[in-house]
Amino acid sequence: MADHEVNAVPVLRWEEPPEGPVLVLLDQTRLPGEEVECFCTDVPALVAAIRALVVRGAPLLGVVGGYGVALAAARGFDVEEASEQLAQARPTAVNLGYGVRRVRGVHERALAAGAGPGEAAAAALAEARAVHREEVEAGAAMGRHGWALLRELLPGGGLRVLTHCNTGTLVSGGEGTALAVVRAAHRAGALRRLWVDETRPLFQGSRLTGWEAARSGMAYSVLPDNAAGSLFAAGEVDAVVVGADRIAADGSVANKVGSYPLAVLARYHHVPFVVVAPLSTVDPGTEDGAGIEVEQRAGHEVTELAPGVTVAPPGARVYNPAFDVTPAELVTALVTESGVVSPVTPEGLAELCSRSRTRASQTGNGMMSG
User: Which entry of 42, 78, 197, 245 is annotated as an active-site residue?
Assistant: First the structure.
């Protein structure tokens, strides 16, 4: 299939039926078996969808957070309360709070300037749409920058790339982050094999990245997370390309749990470990990796394959972090929409963010978080 077919099913959209506005989400928990949509008419329903992983992925959560504020404003709900609920729905993903704060700020400024509720709600929706558009544009830019980096690191093509979790159109509505880079290599005819970690315990790799890879016509193989080491040992991995949910000021990267072991394996086997994320994922307010709040998820995600289908004794204690943190020294390069940081250092990251803020202020583009 051609790449444009990836977007044949919208990841999210805003609709305004006679009974009031609604945010429509592609239910990612039902993929790959069914393409089903979830309709959210209020913020509690949207928060529940976020927590249930109906919608997920750091960039897309920023977009959804912005639309959630706009939804509350349009339906006449308490915007401040709605914003707080949304921002806490997934604490590790910094983009969620970024999108919420940005749209809420526009709404508050509109009201302060004398706008009525309807005008302020329209301003909030316009800003949410701007966040969405910018994330789509950022995905395309990350794909270009990341592909240029891979050509520099690994000239010759025939790339065998290992990825973890899901980082494509399902996390942004556009090209994605890490999968945008893979897609660029695929378009260039340089992708020999995409290795897809299942990504335990919720299988976002096999279910979602596999779904996207199949729709794009990529050559891909799914593997258990704990089989990655044998791939490295056999010399079957040329690069690891992953996304991020939060990047601390020192360059430490929080990503779906299982990413840190891949970084360690990549370092031992002298394989590039590349992180691809928009600058909205950088959190300068978090000094280092130790300061990143790691979400702990329910134990049944580990002990049950499905309701009533158990794979552990009743009452088993469970350790189920949603993310782990990879220190900056294990990251070969950080690819953003504004360029590449390599080596990843606090100074290099701060410089890139500063340059991006300067460009944003000159163009009136409000992408960067503070």
Answer: 245
What letter would DSSP give residue 310? E
C-alpha span between 162 and 221 (Å, rounded): 10
**DSSP sequence for 344-361:** --HHHHHHHHHHHHHHHH
What does the pLDDT read at residue 126?
98
Alpha helices in the chain (DSSP H): 43-51, 58-74, 79-87, 94-112, 117-153, 178-187, 204, 210-216, 228-233, 259-268, 300-303, 346-363
- What span, in angstroms and rounded, lies between the C-alpha atoms of 66 and 86? 9
For the chain, the distance separating the N- and C-terminal CA atoms, rounded to the nearest angstrom, is 40
Burial class (CB in 10 A: 0-12, 13-18, 19+), 246: buried
Is residue 367 pLDDT above 80, yes or no? no
Confidence bin at 363 (pLDDT 50/70/90) = very low
| CB-CB contact of 280 with 356 (8 Å) | no
Active site residue 245: yes
Task: Count CB-CB contacts under 10 A for residue 23.
Answer: 24
Average pLDDT, the chain: 92
Q: Which of 7, 10, 57, 9 is nearest to 204 (CA)?
A: 57
Q: 209 vs 32, 50, 263, 315, 318, CA distance in Å?
A: 10, 19, 19, 32, 26
The DSSP result for 119-131, as a single string, is HHHHHHHHHHHHH
| pLDDT, tens digit, 9 for 90 and up, residues 202-237 | 999 999 999 999 999 999 999 999 999 999 999 999
Q: Is 234 exposed, middle or buried (0-12, 13-18, 19+ CB in 10 A)?
A: exposed
Whose CA is closest to 242, among 319, 296, 323?
323
List pLDDT tens digits, range 4-53.
444 456 899 999 999 999 999 999 999 999 999 999 999 999 999 999 99
Please tell me whether the peptide bond between 21 and the residue prior to it is cis, using omega within 30 degrees of 0.
no
> Can you tell me whether residue 300 is helix, strand or coil?
helix
d(CA 59, CA 179): 13
Who has greater pLDDT, 173 or 125?
Answer: 125
